[in-house]
Amino acid sequence: MRSNCCVARSPNAPKLDKKCYPRLMKSLRKFATFQGILVLTCAALPICGAARPRAQAPAATAPQNPAPASDGAVTGTSGSGNAAGGTQDAKPAAPPPPAQTPPQTPPKPGRQAAIVVTTAAVIVPVTVKDRQGRLVPDLHRDEFRIFEDNVEQKISTFSDAAFPLSMVVLIDNDLKAKVAEQVDGSIKAVVAGMSPSDEASICRFDQYFHEGPGFTANQDKLLTQLKRLPIDDSRPNTAPPSGPFGPPSINGQAAPGVNQPDAYGSTQIIKGQHTKALDDAIYAAGKLLEDRGRDRRKIILLISDGENGAKFNTNDFNTVVKELLRDNISVFSVAVGSAYFDRKFNRLVEYAHASGGDTYYALKRGAMEELYSRVTEEARHQYTLYYTPFGTDRAADYHTIEVRIEREGLNVTAREGYYTSGLQQ
Questions:
Q1: Are residues 66 and 28 in the same domain?
Q2: Residue 332's domain is classified under what CATH number?
Q3: What are phi and psi of 265, to 5 degrees?
Q4: Total count of domains within the chain
Q5: Could you list the residue range(s) of the whole structural domain that residue 404 is in?
Q6: For residues 89 and 298, which has the higher predicted lDDT (pLDDT)?
Q7: CA torsion, points 80, 85, 91, 94, in degrees to nearest 10?
Q8: What are the pLDDT digits (tens) for 122-162?
Q9: Based on CB atoms within 10 Å of each CB, which residue in 128, 157, 185, 370 is the most buried?
Q10: Long-range contacts (CB closer than 8 Å, 24 or more residues apart) made by 372-375
Q11: What is the pLDDT of residues 38-63, one digit of tens each?
Q12: Is the separation of the CB atoms in 290 and 166 below 8 Å?
């Protein structure tokens, strides 16, 4: 058999079979190779076994030292306890830089910005017209000069942007019949001259102030208010003196069923003085505007003949002007009726001049309608100058203002002064 192929056949034949010898040699080579591989493998096992724990050691020990990470101690995988080496490793890896950012919080810059905003700044709306009475819209900042108490001031901010209007339409409720009819027919043009961002409140006055429903930007609502409250319908039911020639009255009130003559109206003439309270009406209209935003142009559109019973007002002219200037309110007057013939010393002119507004005169309905639009357009497109006062007596409450234009041939309108107590501190 094959297993006996390499056995000697006789004592005299000691040599192996040639066919069997090569196979034996190959088996020996394979055995030697296998044994060598086995030896090398066994020799490598202790090395692998020793190396494996060292490779796993950092993973096992790293979680056991979480505390040093917050102090910038060693957090790397080197396992070194060297302080110098630890601090070198901590600089790029430790998170303290983000943790130190909270002290640089925005409240500090916010408070600094608040100081700038709340610094007392004077706001001066300015109207500039040419000799034909047309608005001049192309002026620049360097063409304006402003003086306070005759001391020139530095203009800190200049704006030629249009401002939305907050407007009290203050209608004289005691006009002569013909004038009242013209005003009643033209007053709707005020609403037509408003922009979508404007707001208005319709009020009336005679001997008393009649406040409207409030401010609204809804033009349909404003038109409805004008339709529901025609002139003379809101006058109080107060009877004139009855006397021997007057109509009957009961406890000072008109007797039921008695029609009062139009001559008495809602005001009276006593000893040559009219009882119409124009000063009180402007004062009350200003109070309605005082809480409107500073980002809005606050105006009173006054439609009146200018008659005023000074002794029948609770507030005098100077008191009213002071309140107007404190709240940056301008009076724009449309003079009707007898005011058309008295343009110099009229109360309407005085209020407009003191507050930085303007006065227009109209006799007919068509002229009134045109002027309403001109008033709103002028008020909306005034230049606005801002400055912080310096070089003047800050202990004084009132300060005069004068605005000048470098360009020739132009007329400048601005308020005459302001009260320090009216500035926002």
A1: yes
A2: 3.40.50.410
A3: 55, -150
A4: 2
A5: 118-233+266-422
A6: 298
A7: 20
A8: 999 999 999 999 999 999 999 999 999 999 999 999 999 99
A9: 128
A10: 372/186, 372/187, 372/189, 372/190, 372/192, 372/193, 372/301, 372/334, 373/189, 373/192, 373/193, 375/193, 375/299, 375/301, 375/332, 375/334
A11: 666 655 555 444 444 444 444 444 44
A12: no
Same domain, 147 and 85: no
Same domain, 216 and 327: yes
What are the φ/ψ torsions at residue 74 (nearest 5 degrees)? -65, 125
Residues 44 and 129 in one domain: no
Check residue 163 and give its pLDDT. Answer: 92
Residues 217 and 358 in one domain: yes
Q: What is the pLDDT of residue 366?
A: 86
pLDDT of residue 111: 33
In angstroms, rounded to a whole number, what is the distance separating the alpha carbons of residues 390 and 146? 12
pLDDT the model gives residue 229: 58
Can you tell me the distance from the alpha carbon of 425 to that of 423, in angstroms, rounded to the nearest whole number? 6
* Whether residue 382 sits in one domain with residue 297: yes
Assessment of whether the complete model's pTM goes beyond 0.85: no
CB 222 within 8 A of CB 216: yes
Residues 279 and 403 in one domain: yes
Q: What is the mean pLDDT of residues 292-313?
A: 90
The secondary structure of 248-271, three-state, reads CEECCEECCCCCCCCCCCCCCEEC
Cβ neighbours of 219 (radius 10 Å): 16
